[in-house]
Amino acid sequence: MHVAVAPANDWILPQFDFHVEDLGHPGAKLFFSQINPYDALRRAVEASWKWLYGWDGRVGKNKVPRAVQSVKRITLTLRSTMDGVAHTFGSGEGEKQVHFALKHIVNSHQGDTAEKKNTRVREEILGVLVHEIVHCYQYNGKGKAPGGLIEGIADCVRLHDKLPPPHWKRVAPKGKHVPDPERPNDPGEWKWDWNWDAGYERTAYFFDWIDSTWQTWPESSRNTLQNTTSRSPPVTSAAGSAPPPSATSMPELPLPYGWIKQEHESGHPFYVDTRANPPRSIWTHPCEDEQYLKANPSPSPSGPSPPIGKGLFFRALNARLEESDWESEADLFLELTNWPREALWEAYCADYAPPQ
Ligand SMILES: [Zn+2]
C-alpha cells in the first residue's frame, strides 16, 4: 500500500478558511465553475513567497522567511454586498482576512465566446487573489510606506506571475513642455510627470522594468545587496563594459543624477548636465563621456557580485521595507540600484511614454 507523502512545504502553509455569503449569487456559481479554492489560495501564497522572498517552500534550502512563519490563517470571504474588487486586512495575531466582491467576478465574465469568458474570469480571480495574498506577506516600512508603493508591489507580483488583466498596458505618463516666458519661441523645458507611485499598473510596470533591466546595466552601476549603504554617484566604466544598449533593443541606461536628455533640431539626442554652471551639453551619453568619467571614477568593486536574476530588485525592496521605517526623503532606489529614483523614472518614461 502506498502512503501519500505531503509536499515538503505543507506544514508551513497557512490554514485556509473559506466563506461564501450567498451560494446562489451568479458570482459564486462562476467562482465554483472555474476555481478550486484551495489550489488558488495555495498558488497565490507560493507566488508571494517566490517573488517577495525568493523562497520556494523547501525547508532547509534557505531559512523560512519570518513573514512566512507569521501568517497562520488566511480567510477568504466572497461577499455579495460589497462593491469594488477586494481588500485584505489583519484580524488578529497571524490572522488575515481577504474579502472579494462577487459582483466583480460577474463583471469579469467577459469575452466573445464562452471559453474566453471563462478564461477571463478564472485569470481575474487568480490575479486578484495573488494581489491580495501579497498584502498578507509583504513588508510596508513599518506601516509608513506610501500606499502606491504597496499596491505597486502587489500588482508587480501579479504581473510576474503572468496574471495581468487585459486592460493593463505598459505606458508611462508622457510629460509635457513647460514654456519659458522669457523665450516664447522656444518649445520650453520638458517636464515629466513624476507620479511614479500612483500605484497599481503604473507602479507595477515601473518596478517590473527595473527588475527586468537592472541586470543588463553595467556591473559598476549596479549596487551589491551587501553594499546598500553606498551613496556614491552612479558611474560606469568605459573600459571593458558593454556599450549602452540601443534604444530599440533595450532601454537606454538611466542618466546620472542631474543629467537630462534633449533632442536637437536635427533629431539627434544630446545630454545636458544641469548641475554644471553653466550647464554642459554633450552628444554622447555621460557614461561614455571622458570628462564625466574622469570626474566620477568607477568605484572599485567591493564584496562579491550580486546574484543576478529577475526578482532580485524586488526582494531587496521588500527586505528594505522590513528593516526600517519608510522615509520619504531617503531614496531606496538609489540605495538598491545606485540610480536615483528620478533618474530611473525619467529613463523609464523616456522609453515607454507614448509618442508626442
Ligand atoms: Zn491592494
UniProtKB/TrEMBL annotation:
Residues 232-241 have a biased composition (Low complexity). Pfam families: BSP. Residues 167-176 have a biased composition (Basic residues). Residues 167-190, 220-252 are annotated as: Disordered. It comes from the Eukaryota. Residues 220-231 have a biased composition (Polar residues). Residues 254-288 form the WW domain. Residues 177-190 have a biased composition (Basic and acidic residues). PANTHER family: PLANT BASIC SECRETORY PROTEIN (BSP) FAMILY PROTEIN, PTHR33321. This is Plant basic secretory protein. The lineage of its organism: Eukaryota, Fungi, Dikarya, Basidiomycota, Agaricomycotina.
